[in-house]
Design brief:
CATH class of the largest domain: Alpha Beta
Strand order of the largest sheet: 1-5-4-2-3-6
Number of helices: 15
Largest sheet: 6 strands, mixed
Structural class: alpha/beta
Distance between the termini: 20 Å
CATH architecture of the largest domain: 3-Layer(aba) Sandwich
Strand content: 15-25%
Radius of gyration: 22 Å
Helix content: 25-40%
Length: 454
């Protein structure tokens, strides 16, 4: 079991659990592991979101890299997918995003990307941890003219903007309408600068909310984890569509013209159907995780699309896509990967794909959503002791109650239990035909888990 890295990098409370000292070690070890096979001075990019602790973590990270002898380009506040894109575009040796994604402001995190712009695999994270806790770490010291140099390159956001212009400019210009207006919630996060520039450059009428970060309001009752205000905003202003990003910009959820939520499963259905029509859905396959709604699988079967299922985590979706040659996959949370464009989830890219489809088909979001019927689903978080969260399946009482519920469903529902990779929680997902019933049973299981694993 990894000591520092979870399912999405290292994520902890900043300057408490995620100390500058720890970050310094993570930087030195990471620079060594990710560049030890190169024959040149490594260059590493650093991007961050808008958290108050961002510059603190950035400074410690930079110090670690420079001390090892790596050169650093500081990208400033930039979405995670922009950092991934620039890593590949600039032929950098690696990159780091300093963000805790959808978590509240007191958390922060470190996510590494390889020279291919992809999140590093589990085995590389394990190797970094080994170096961090070994005597090797004290040997990774550059001296004299080998010390690294850092430079600020916030101008590189323009490369990311150009990527969207060359991808969407022609078709959006062809089908755009004056009465098509998008409401966008940037979550006071990493997309707040890029969104305005990109949508203005493409000529899409838009209104942005929650784009005034102050260091502590990221994800605060806004963004993809809190859609209520966007739903009201879209309805009150009679907008064509609502878009919400998370704190680091790798997720996108939407709201239709009536204020109804469009989650990642529905977005996958809409986009996979469009790509299949265009002959651009590789191997006619969409990749999703075990947490995706049963309705997505039924949609795929009905529309001649293969459905590939992975364990939870966008890295596992990507691994399956790379292994089998697929180009579309994602999660219910709105983390959608378009491998033809970028090897990580990209909220802005997802939203523009959705907008392109709406404009080209001259349809409303609610009309497009009719392609899929979702099953009622409830997700409950059971608060447990952090050192016990992985042992739920060794408890006979817990497993007996789960099996009993699965037997009751007789194939018309599911129970999925998984520990959180970043928090002291066990997540319980129950899916079935009756919302009231599955909510009651999910709460019962959550109570049992909390009692048994406290």
């Amino acid at each position: 079991m990894r000591k520092y890295f979870g399912t999405d990098g290292i994520r902890r409370i900043a300057n408490s659990d995620l100390t500058p000292e720890l970050v310094y070690r993570v930087a030195k070890a990471g620079a060594y592991v990710l560049s030890k096979h190169t024959d040149h001075v490594p260059t590493i990019l650093i991007g961050r979101d808008t958290r108050i602790s961002g510059t603190l973590i950035e400074s410690a990270m930079t110090s670690g890299f420079l001390s090892y002898g790596a050169n650093v380009k500081l990208l400033g506040v930039l979405p995670t997918p922009a950092v991934a894109y620039l890593t590949k575009k600039l032929n950098a040796d690696a990159s780091v995003v300093i963000s805790a994604s959808h978590n509240t402001y007191e958390f922060n995190g470190v996510k590494y990307f390889s020279n291919k712009g992809m999140k590093i695999p589990d085995e590389i994270e394990e190797e970094i941890e080994e170096v961090m806790d070994s005597e090797k770490i004290v040997e990774l010291i550059a001296t004299k003219d080998k010390i690294g140099v850092a430079e600020t390159r916030e101008d590189l956001i323009d490369e990311y903007i150009y990527f969207f212009r060359k991808t969407f400019d022609e078709i959006i210009e062809k089908y755009n309408r004056d009465d098509f207006i998008v409401g966008i919630d940037t979550s006071n996060g990493a997309t707040y600068k890029a969104t305005e520039k990109i949508f203005t450059a493409l000529g899409i009428n838009h209104i942005i909310i929650n784009d005034t970060p102050n260091g502590i309001n990221i994800n605060d009752n806004c963004g993809s984890t809190h859609l209520e205000n966007l739903q009201k905003f879209v309805k009150a202003n009679h907008l064509s569509l609502g878009i919400a990003y998370d704190g680091d910009g790798d997720r996108c959820l939407a709201v239709d013209e009536n204020g109804n939520v469009i989650d990642g499963d529905v977005i996958l259905a809409i986009i996979s159907n469009y790509l299949k029509e265009k002959g651009r859905l590789k191997k006619d396959t969409v990749v999703a995780t075990i947490m995706s709604n049963l309705g997505l699988k039924k949609y795929a079967e009905k529309n001649g699309i293969n459905f590939a299922e992975t364990k939870v985590g966008d890295r596992y979706v990507l691994e399956e896509m790379l292994k089998e040659g697929y180009n579309l996959g994602g999660e219910q949370s709105g983390h959608i990967i378009f491998l033809d464009y970028n090897p990580t989830g990209d909220g802005i890219l997802t939203s523009l794909m959705l907008i392109q489809i709406l404009l080209e088909k001259n349809a409303t979001p609610s009309q497009l959503c009719k392609i899929i019927t979702l099953y009622p689903q409830v997700l409950i978080n059971a608060k447990v002791s952090n050192n016990k969260k992985y042992s739920y399946n060794q408890d006979e009482v817990i497993m007996e109650n789960i099996k009993k519920l699965e037997d009751e469903f007789s194939g018309n529902g599911r129970v999925i239990i998984r520990p959180s990779g970043t928090e002291p929680l066990v997540r319980i997902m129950v899916e079935g035909e009756n919302q009231e019933y599955i909510t009651k049973r999910a709460n019962e299981i959550a109570t049992i888990i909390e009692e048994r694993l406290k």
